[in-house]
Each structure stands twice: as structure tokens, then as C-alpha cells.
Amino acid sequence: MTAFMQKQTHPLNEQQKHLALIAAFAATGELPHLGAALENGLDCGLTISDCREVLVQLYAYAGFPRSLNALGILMKTVEARHLNGKSDREGSQPGPMPSPQEMLAAGTQNQIALVGSPVKGALFDFAPAADQYLKAHLFGDIFARDNLDWKSRELATVGALAALSGVEPQLKAHLGISINVGLSADQLQELVPYFKARGAEKAAQRLENELNTLTA
């Protein structure tokens, strides 16, 4: 877990930027753009596992329909590339996972590490089931899967939330989490022109707006 929190001292690499872009197009259901982003991401060295992990994780933010549609595009993309003679690396599978009985505690620990403090509040007192689902499932079942590091998972989350309207508070929260896991505001800012140049202008604008509130 400690390695997942180390500060990144170099600019975002192409693989990191592509993971955010893939998540953005998947979240909005822009499947032709998603297909192109997956092609380019695989070409720049992303593994099939990297892409699949991001698209599975996406369901927690954009719902199962968008996640399943995006996974279908990934499957077709990989099959077509194989027929065209391209050999994509499968990538890693997750290591040993906590047992179902241990998942709530593991997820709570992950959440505290990511956010920087225990997460409490009136909303979770009002809806304790949502609190348990976040801890046991999102931060447990998903973030305990160690075949994608936390920086990559947060970049994907930022990409997805930036692409969606009406979730600015969650986007701002995950920008803070991204900084907690070792990214900087300047590195996150690199996504703005990257998104704009690849057809994700609305996501770029929302991201820029929320980054400005962090640095104001």
C-alpha cells in the first residue's frame, strides 16, 4: 500500500493520460471515441488488464450500463487487434484479496489512507447503507485489487467524474484524493489540454474549473 502513496516526480506519462481519457469517454457512453482511446492506449503500452480494471471500476461512478457497454467495446477492440496481428499484453491479475468477512475493515483502512482521515458525516448517519457500500465494496472490493495502482485508479475516477455533469463535489473530492496518493495539481492540470485535443472538451472545462478552486 505504501508504494501506492509515493509522490510522482515526473509528468504524467501517456499511459496515465490514456487511462483518464478512456474513463471519460466510457462514462459518457461516447463509444466511437472510447474505441479510439482504447486503440491508442493499447498502442502506447497499456495492458488489457489495465483497461479492463478501469472499465470495471467505472460502474461505481457511472453505473453498470455504461461499464458493460465499455467492456464490450474493449473486448471487440482486443479481438480486432488480434485478427490484425497485434499482440497486446494481458497484464497482471490481482494478488490475494481479503476475505468477505475482512473486506469492510480493509476497505475502511483503504478509505482512510486515500482520503487522509476517517470519513464521517450527517449524510452517512442518515444513509448508513451507503457508507457501508463505499467502505466494503468501492474501497474494499475494488481498491484492494492491486493490479492497478491507486494513482491510476484515481486518474480514471477523475476522468470519469470530469466527463459527467452534476458531480462537481465528487470531482473536487477525488482531485484531493489524487493529491493524497502522490499526484500534484500541476500533473492533474496536464489532463486539461490533453482532453481538449482529443474531443473531451466538456470534461476538460469541468476539470479546469475544479482545479482552479484547489489552487485559488
Reconstruct the topology from this structure.
Elements lengths: L13 H15 L2 H13 L4 H10 L1 H4 L1 H20 L19 H13 L6 H5 L1 H15 L7 H14 L4 H13 L4 H5 L1 H6 L4 H15 L1
Helix pairs in contact: 1-2, 1-3, 1-9, 2-5, 3-5, 6-8, 9-10, 9-13, 10-13
Description:
By secondary structure, the protein is an all-alpha fold. It folds into two domains: 13-94 and 147-215, Up-down Bundle (AhpD-like), CATH 1.20.1290; 96-144, no CATH class. 69% of the residues lie in helices and 0% in strands. The protein has 13 helices and no strands. It has helices at 14-28, 31-43, 48-57, 59-62, 64-83, 103-115, 122-126, 128-142, 150-163, 168-180, 185-189, 191-196, 201-215. The longest helix has 20 residues, at 64-83. The model has no long low-confidence stretch (mean pLDDT 96).
Short account of what is shown:
Residues 128-191 form the Carboxymuconolactone decarboxylase-like domain. This protein has 216 residues and is mainly α. 69% of the residues lie in helices and 0% in strands.
